[in-house]
Amino acid sequence: MTITLITGANKGLGFETARRLIQEGHSVYLGSRDPKKGRVAAESLGARFVQLDVTSDESVDAAARDIKRRDGHLDVLINNAGIAGHSGILPRDVTAEDVQHVFETNVFGVVRVTHAMLPLLLEAEDPVIVNVASGLGSHAIVNDKSRVESRFVTIAYSSSKSALTMLTIQYAKAFPEIRVNVVDPGYTATDLNSNRGTQNITEGTEAIVSLATIGGDGPTGTFKDRHGVVPW
Q1: Which of 161, 171, 187, 224 is catalytic?
Q2: Is-contact 184 147, C-beta < 8 A?
Q3: Per-residue pLDDT averaged across 96-110, rounded?
Q4: Which DSSP symbol is given to 87?
Q5: Does residue 29 carry a catalytic annotation?
């Protein structure tokens, strides 16, 4: 059975990804910072709850120990947890502290979780990492006036997701035995955008599920959405 960990999975894209992968036969660890919400979500899906705050070394290390004790390896890691940052701040008012707050989850959190889970992934036969970024992290897309992403100015969020795409490339180069890819879910209706997204939650998880279910001969170091390759 494929053992999968999804961070930030008690709602939104993470929750729907967990539901779909369980249907595919995965045994899913549903990671959530909030134990109460996480347990309720896991029980509703038939997933296994693991308390996981991606901004805490102690929490992430404890989750890794728990998975090692229970399964001894990890086949798929989906770094889904992310935050938009403080809303309503004008670009001129964005501070270093505001950007650092977003990077702590969206960038450093991914490094923290990946570092802790690497020994478990390397015990798997065909390990996979899927990082959940955004079209707002694509230099090409945010400069394409035909795309909705070009209309937003999100200093902290966009730069964090751009950093995540580079992290993906570097991890893919460093660990050729792991399939490491990054996805743009698309403008999906979730709490992150106050449900203003134009895609439904199932459409938003298409690329995540697709890249979470590849085999050892699948792609690595790619940036994709549900339609195909995303420009960097």
Answers
A1: 161
A2: no
A3: 97
A4: T
A5: no
The yes-or-no verdict on residue 193 having pLDDT over 70 is no
Q: Return the residue matching tokens 């979730």.
A: 190
Phi and psi angles of residue 3, each rounded to the nearest 5 degrees, phi first: -95, 120
Q: How confident is the model at residue 197 (pLDDT cuts 50, 70, 90)?
A: low
Residue 228: per-residue pLDDT: 96
Helix (H) or strand (E) holding 134: none
User: What are 132's two structure tokens?
Assistant: 């959940």
Check if the beta carbon of residue 69 is closer than 8 Å to that of residue 50: no
**Residues near 185 by beta carbon (within 8 Å), at least 6 away in sequence:** 13, 132, 134, 199, 204, 205, 207, 208, 225, 226
Closest CA to 182 of 133, 111, 117, 118: 133
138, HSE (Cβ side, Cα atoms, 13 Å): 26
Closest CA to 18 of 7, 112, 219: 7
Is 68 an active-site residue? no
Q: How far apart are CA 207 and CA 181, in angstroms?
A: 10
From the list 157, 171, 187, 224, the catalytic residue is 157
**The pLDDT value given to residue 218:** 96
